[in-house]
Design a protein that fits this description.
Layout lengths: L3 H29 L6 H11 L7 H14 L1 H10 L1 H20 L7 H27 L4 E2 L2 E2 L9 H25 L2 H28 L5 H8 L3 H5 L1 H18 L5 H21 L2 E3 L3 E2 H4 L3 H28 L3 E2 L5 E2 L1
Antiparallel strand pairs: 1-2, 3-4, 5-6
Amino acid sequence: MIDLPVIWAFIIAFAVFVYVVMDGFDLGLGMLFPLFQNKADRDIIMNSVAPVWDGNETWLVLGGGGLMAAFPLAYAVVMPAVYTPMIAMLIGLVFRGVAFEFRWRTLRERNRWDAAFAGGSLLATLAQGIALGAILQGVHVDGRHYAGGWWDWLTPFSLLTGVALVAGYCLLGATWLVMKTEGDLRERAYHLSSWLLFAMLAAIGAVSLATPFLSIQYASRWFAWPNIILTSPIPIAVAAVTVLLLRSLKARQDYRPFFLSLALFALSYAGLGISMWPYIVPRSITIWQAAAPRDSQLFMLFGVAVLVPIILAYTAWAYYVFRGKVDPHGGYHT
C-alpha cells in the first residue's frame, strides 16, 4: 500500500525547498541593495529578477496550503507557535513587493521605496529563519493543541537561525549577480560572494553545533552508531562544495558559483530533514499522526500531480527565456 503521508511530506518539503531556492536570491538581492548606491546598478539589479520574482511565492502557497490540507493537526499546532514571525514575514513580503513596483513610478520618493525594498527583504528573511528555529527547537504540545506562550519563538537559537538564513540568502543574491551582470557590478558581486560564503559557513557551523544540544534525539540521530555512517557524508559534501565554490569564484566563473551555493542550501536542507524525520512537529507529532484521512490525501494528490508539472514547466520556460546577462541599457542578451 502506498504510504501517502510520506509522499505528502516529500511534496511539502520539495515545495518549501523550491521556494527557498527561487525566492532566496531575490530576497538576498534586496538585503544587498544598500551596498549598491549607484542608481544604474540598482536598476540593473532590479531588472535581473523582474521577469521571475513575482512567481516565486507560488511555492510558498503550495507548501503552506499543502501543510494545512495534508497535515491539518501539524498546521493547527505549528501556526499558533509561529504566528508572530509568520505575520512579520508577510508584512516584509508586502513591503518588498509594493516597493518593487512603486520605485519605478517616482523619482522623488525612489530612495524611500528602495529602503522599503531592502527592509522588507530583511524582515521577511529574518522571520523565515526565526520561524524555522522556533519549530526546530520544539513546540510545546498538550494533546492535540499548542500549549506554549506567545513569545516562545524568540530564543537565542531562533535568532541564530534567522541570522544564518540572512547570510545564506545574501550569498545566493551575490552569486546571482555574478551570473547575471557584467563589468564593475559583477566584480563587486564576486568580492561580496567570497565574504558571504565564509559568513554562511560560520552560520552553518554554529547552527550545526547548537542543534544537538536542543534534544538528545538530535544528538543520537547524528552521532550515535550506526547513524553516523549515514549522516557523515553531509558535512563531507559541504566541505567539498565549499572548495569548489571558492575555486569557481577565484576563476571568475559565471554560473558555477550560483549553482554551488544552491548545493550548499540543498545539503543544509537535507541535514534539517535528517534531524526532524519522521516528526512534522519535532519530538511531538509524526507525519502519520498529523495526516489527514487517506481519501483526502489521495484526492489532493491527483491535483498536485497535474498542477506541479505545469508550474515547473512555465517556471523553467520563464528562466529559459530570460537567460543570459542583463543588458545595462535594458533587456537581456544571451
